[in-house]
Batch of 2 targets.
Target 1
Amino acid sequence: MAGDSLALRSRIFFMKFSLLSLLLAYQSRSFYLPGVAPQDFVTGVELKLKVNKLTSTKTQLPYSYYSLPYCPPDRIVNSAENLGEVHRGDHIENSPYVFQMREPQQCQILCCITLDAKTTKQFKIDDDYRVNMFDQENTVVYQHGFQVGLKGQYAGSKDQKHFIYNHLTFTVKFHKDSQLNLARIVGFEVKPFSIKHDYDGQWKNENTRLTTCDPHARRAVTSSEFPQVIEDKKDVIFTYDVTFEESEVKWASRWDTYLLMADDQIHWFSIDISKYNQLETQEEAQEETRWKLVHGDAFQPPTNSDLLCVYAGTWVQFFGMILVTMIFAALGFLSPSNRGGLMTTMLLLWVFMGLFSGYASTRLYKMFKGTEWKKITLKTAFMFPATIFAIFFVLNALIWGEKSSGAVPFGTMFALVFLWFGISVPLVFAGSYIGFKKPAIKDPVKTNKIPRQIPGQAWYMNPIFSILIRGILPFGAVFIELFFILTSIWLHQFYYIFGFLFIFFVILIVTCAEITIMLCYFQLCSEDYLWWWRPYLTSGSSAIYLFVYAAFYFFTKLDITKPMSGILYFGYMLIASYAFFVLTGTIGFYACFWFTRLIYSSVKID
């Protein structure tokens, strides 16, 4: 065996609801027997393990556990899944792995399968469907899942062969609470092995005696001297061991192992450096009065005012969804144990925020002297969601064509459409009706009937130049945290520092507002009163840099091999960039809207 090249030695992987993951069906249960000391807590309670999807950071295409010919139970049962789990591609199913609490098991046989041409091809996975454990400075860091198998050299041969991990050694960790007189499961580890099992005589059933599991021959198992090669017409026997181990980890800290991320110092550092995005404004603060000269034209309705109203209303819906979700997450209501909870919360909040979306769009529309409120309501209810849904539908069709479990089922798509048409759209109409019945927002100054001519502008006030250059600053305020967000999404890690995320969200809002207000002030001082779209596009242009950074991340941090996976990556990042454009752009618009009304309300007209 070429030990280092094949690396079939024992490895520990902390189990997560991911790559070939096995989770305790009753993990949240406490094992308690009244009147008995904690060390004597009840034994023999049955623990059923469940399985989830197989994932790979190279393909980003998850597949269901039983898409590979693993040993199935007598009847495969899907667990109930929420909308968030479905969108994540989770498929929680039962498995034949059954433990008895505090009853160690050795070399339990699951089944024996004979590989044929089809199953051999299925198990020969070259796309690295694995998430590894790594050792750094003698500190063990766990990550979710374990390898399906490996490809490497064997017994000095120069040929590359595929090997399968067909023996799992489980370690279930429990913590005893002397005060509550109970014990709870707080950890779950597995060591995978590749073993070519031998047995005496002919194969009978799961009661066949395996010579490789003889306690006196245990070295053959743990040292993996005889790995199981994946070849046609080969028998593969799947087995497992179970041990129980007391742990010092308390129940409240059981998720800490999952959440080992980079040092928090880098998050604080990225907050500190954001102050360098602040521009010197001492000279800019010198008194200027030329903006008063255009007071009669500063509130001339903009071109494409309907589109601006739609985006402004959509932003209220989007902003409300993000703000409430972050608050819930920061307060701990969206625990990692609640799989899909974050996605489900965001979807439901988006739907119910439609009421405020319709209200905001029609209030602005009526200020622009608009009368067809139903038309603007339809645009608000459909334009942004329809764009996102169309891109998502195409990407989902591509995933479906790859036969990946990440594809959203037809029933779930129907549920999304129902939430959209059945709840969100009526709420948008209700909000629009209420908003349009309100008195129109009055301009702080009287608007001229004939707009004045705009004088020539300096080169640095060129719209394209000023928009693109100043759009870097909002992106620069958050790009460091963006690395952690992309890592959690595309490398299947947990993102949990929602407190930091909320701080960065506030920084993003402040940066967008400051930059656009400063630009708006300069523009008005240059007697250019067409300010409505300039702040929107200035802060919204940060979405361009977001997409460019996503491309940089793709080529430098990810190891995606299939073209289809690349299409999915850039498709989803296009959705994220478009949403970021709407979010940051409207922040800039509302900041300038408030600013212009404030300064012109103080102007005294003779």
Target 2
Amino acid sequence: MKILLVYPYFLDNRINEEDVSAVPMGLYYIGAMLRANGYGVDLLNGYNLGRAPHRIYQVLGDKRPDVVGFSILHANRWGGIDIARMVKKVNPKACVVFGGVGATFLWKHFLTHFPQVDYVVRGEGEVSFLELIRHLEQKKTAPPTHIDGIAFRKAGTPFKTRDREPVADLDSLPMPADHFSFQHLSLTRGCPAGCTFCGSPAFWKRRVRFHSADYFVTQMARLRKKGITFFFVSDDTFTLKRELVIAICRRIIAAHLDIVWVAISRVDCVDEEMLGWMRRAGCTQISYGVESGSRKIRDLYRKRISDAAICRAFDMTVRFGIMARAYFIYGAPGETDQTIDESLALVRRIRPLSAIFYILDLFPGTALYDDFKQRSGATDDIWLERVEDMLYFETDDAMSREAVLAFGKRLREGYFASLPDFAARIELVDQPDLYPLHADFLSRLALTFSHGDFAMNPLVKDCLATAVMLFERSLAYHPDHRAFWGLGLVYQHLRRFEDSVAILQQGIGHHKDSVDLHLALANSLMRLNRHPEARLCLDRFPDHPQAVELLVRCCRFMGDREGEQTWRSRLKRLQQR
């Protein structure tokens, strides 16, 4: 039996493609479970195929799957429906199975309105989907009422079986890294919080289960062997068990994995010792759900955190050289100019070095969505409209689109205008063993001001001056490669070529074999008409296309036609490889 697992596309384009490009971890776990039990499984990441149906048809024609399983998050449900129709067009006998958080909460909706959907796996899917595959393989005519955690049509009517008990021991699940390559990892399943905008309380029943430190780090190590060095740890709250987190960090360090990773936490679930271990183990960013500076709004979200805890967490996180990112949600019931002022005041207190501001969405499975249905009399049939989501203000006559968009504009303008000041006020713990990591942190941040997102944001002022300050602070801690390179490039941009040459030469003194530093130095020397020196810089990299390009230019400027022709021929050979 051939099985294809699909992550469908979304209707709307994203400013940041990475927000939707990663296949959910659950799909990898299901794929691993199936492969470990002898089934052939392919996986299609179709997040960007909304305008390329021919590519989907090509995959379906090549793979000829008997069963196609879809990971439905809700906003990608129409992509799932569209592809399910394609599946049935290619092979009417193929079985379509929807799963994931979106399918779990709308199982009846899908089975009522979309005949292309044959089954829905509700909740945790590994065991339910495996048992369903075995049932389909046996080609039994009786409906699979014995399989917990699924839904289907029984006598033409949507029917669900009993809820499945969650897997008691997460380490008993086959390890996805043995079968797939990916960057997103999870230590836990579930979250103890009860936030009204989140589907986790209903999906996981506010129960939390944990992998062991050995399982988690082993999976990370196996992915590292495949060449993956950057990881997103995607748990709702990675730091729930302090000793477990520290044990994981110690194992990462002992194994010399040399990786970089980011995580999500709550402001009341971190402390200094934990943060120190996380930083030493490669953590560079922690995202915290702040949601609002208004206690009234946070209470409405059931976000049970205090201003003091928020300030403490952001201060501690940055002090250990970890980027503290803040999530804010605006446009809640009762949002006013005053509550936005309170959010801006909190932003100025916590000084986040990254912040994301979302408009409040209503999703099935959340308490706010249930409240909307009660007060409006609406049903799940509202999702028959071809839209991704529903913004809260669209359901509240007391709020206008213009007002809510103005709230967002004020938040973003206020935040980005303050960002250079936040960077200037960074304080780091004075622990000598952390100095190289402090340098790394400061140079990473500097690069966002010189060449990254902040540099391209017109709301952020004094970007280059801020970058120079951060690069210089970085080098005061440690001869960081990125800081030498970034500062040399900024000096080039400012036409301070002598300064650029000096700092790049200093960097090469510490990093003798750095191609990037030599290329940057050659560029600055050429701007100063010091082409023979630039040529000496570049001669040592005859197999690097960019170095050879610069050598062609050097020879041309120096009138060395034979050398120019030699390097031009070499460049052509390199480009043909």
